[in-house]
């Protein structure tokens, strides 16, 4: 209904890295190699280290992401995989979508 729930400042804070890779003692395989923000893994970042794409994968084959540069969000559900996640497949799918939708981050 055209109502703001979070301020722009709050969203900026949620998209900032909260840890660096040296601080991570354990990450699930799908989060390995990514920096964590508030509630999501930063899967792409700009030159300043700020998030340009974030993902919050679930343990049972759900892979949501939002891409700030390309102005879209996606939600993928897998069935019949017993929670086995395909990180490389998700990233390849995202890269394919990114190739189609123009982006504008620096």
Q: Judging from the principal axes of the Cα atoms, what is the shape?
A: globular
Count up the helices.
2
**Number of E-state strands:** 5
**Proportion of helical residues:** 10-25%
Quick check: average pLDDT? 85
User: Which series of helices and strands comes N to C?
Assistant: HEEEEEH
Q: What structural class do helix, strand and pairing data support?
A: alpha+beta
Strand count, sense and barrel status of the largest sheet are: 5 strands, antiparallel
Give the end-to-end Cα distance, rounded to a whole number of Å: 31 Å
The strand order across the widest sheet is: 1-2-3-4-5
Strand content: 15-25%
Low-confidence stretches: none
The radius of gyration computed from the alpha-carbon positions, rounded to a whole number of angstroms, is 14 Å
Considering the chains and any ligands shown, give keywords for the structure.
single chain; alpha+beta; five-stranded antiparallel sheet; 20% helix; globular
């Amino acid at each position: 209904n055209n109502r703001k729930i979070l301020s722009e400042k709050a969203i900026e804070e949620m998209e900032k890295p909260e840890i660096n890779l040296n601080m991570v003692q354990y990450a699930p395989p799908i989060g390995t190699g990514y920096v964590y923000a508030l509630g999501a893994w930063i899967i792409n970042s700009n030159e300043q280290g700020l998030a340009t794409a974030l993902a919050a994968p679930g343990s049972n084959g759900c892979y949501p992401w939002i891409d700030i540069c390309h102005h879209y969000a996606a939600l993928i559900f897998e069935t019949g995989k017993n929670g086995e996640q395909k990180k490389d497949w998700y990233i390849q799918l995202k890269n394919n979508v990114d190739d189609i939708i123009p982006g504008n981050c620096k």
